Amino acid sequence: MRRAAPREDGRRRLAGIGLMCLALLCFTGIDTSAKWLGRGLPPLEVAFVRYLVAAVIAALVFWPTRVPNAWVTRRPLLQLVRGLCLLGSTVFNFVALGHLQLAETMSISFSAPLLIALLSGPILGERIGASRWALIGLGFLGVVVVARPTGVGFHPAMFVAFANVGCYAVYAVITRRLAGVDSAASMLVFSTALPVFVLAPALPAVWVWPSSPSVWLVAAVMGACGALGHLLLILAFARAPASVVAPFTYTQILWMTLCGWLVFGDLPGVSTVLGGAIVMASGVGLLWLERRGASSAGG
User: Fold this and answer.
1) Is 270 helix (H, G, I), strand (E, B) or coil?
2) pTM
3) Would you list the DSSP string of 146-159?
4) DSSP 202
5) Tens place of pLDDT for every residue, the chain, 299 residues?
6) Residue 144: half-sphere exposure toward Cβ, Cα within 13 Å
């Protein structure tokens, strides 16, 4: 009987990993839609629409009379900082996508798990074993192989992409911190509503009216992916430590490559295939560690 709790903890960690992978599929939908919309709309407008649609969906799903705890928080300051970090990450990412190739933004953004792992130690008190560190490093090596920056020189927009990574890492750590305090519904409502109010005053200066119904449709898909993706992310962090689920962001390379080919006609080269294999090996290794831990806990 004393081993039931460790076994359940192992199962929760595996569930957290699965939820993270599904969240990344949604995030790929956000980036793909944003890159497509960015051809004719300014980044701030794209970000506003992304959060407006997500906020409407969140409000309908968690209507105050049905889910009253979704509209309250015990840590308003953390919710504010978390929401601003998420907004900053989104805006920085959308701006970077307008100036850099997808491979370049991927190469930079996938350094986030390392930063999250570093922050989760002093802030959350989580420990990372040597085996997991080695596999995280292997995954990052695969990302570098896949998303090797092209062109000459250092584009200033890369600083914007690094700002995206910094904002996202703080957002992820705060999400883990809030997971045991506020409900997942509360975090979703606040993180979608706050950007709407922050961005609204800037819209008159940048607004460009969409030219066709397809633009509205893609914007709606982007917002829906945002609402669902962040809900799944919150649930993932509520079930497993940040240092466990964060490395699985590497699996997004597969979805990004597929969408790049289907939507933008970007065919993967040899480096993409080789790097993807390295990243998959890293992900499989991390999953094996979790299963071995769960099996040992269960006896």
Assistant:
1) helix
2) 0.75
3) HT---SSS--THHH
4) G
5) 444 466 777 788 888 889 998 998 998 899 889 989 988 899 999 999 989 988 998 899 899 999 998 899 999 999 999 999 999 999 999 998 877 766 677 767 777 776 776 676 666 666 667 887 887 788 778 777 765 655 544 577 778 888 998 998 898 888 888 877 888 889 889 998 999 999 999 999 999 988 889 998 998 899 889 888 878 888 887 888 776 787 777 778 778 878 878 888 776 667 667 777 787 777 777 767 766 665 555 54
6) 7
Exposed / middle / buried, residue 180 (Cβ in 10 Å: 0-12, 13-18, 19+):
exposed
Torsion of CA 129, 131, 136, 142, to 10 degrees: 170
Let me know if 212 is exposed, middle or buried by CB neighbors in 10 A (0-12, 13-18, 19+).
exposed
Compute the distance between CA of residue 267 and CA of residue 271 in angstroms, rounded to an integer: 11
At a CB cut-off of 8 Å and minimum separation 6, what does 63 contact? Answer: none
Q: Tell me whether residue 129 is exposed, middle or buried, using C-beta atoms within 10 angstroms of its C-beta: 0 to 12, 13 to 18, 19 or more.
A: exposed
The two three-digit tokens of residue 109, written as one number: 């953004």
Q: Are 106 and 238 in contact (CB under 8 A)?
A: no
CA distance 84 to 82: 6
Cα 159 to chain centroid, rounded: 19
Local structure of 61: helix, strand or coil: helix
Answer for the pair 227, 260: CB distance below 8 angstroms, yes or no.
no
Quick one: DSSP state of residue 40?
A: T
Cα 40 to Cα 7: distance, rounded to the nearest angstrom: 51
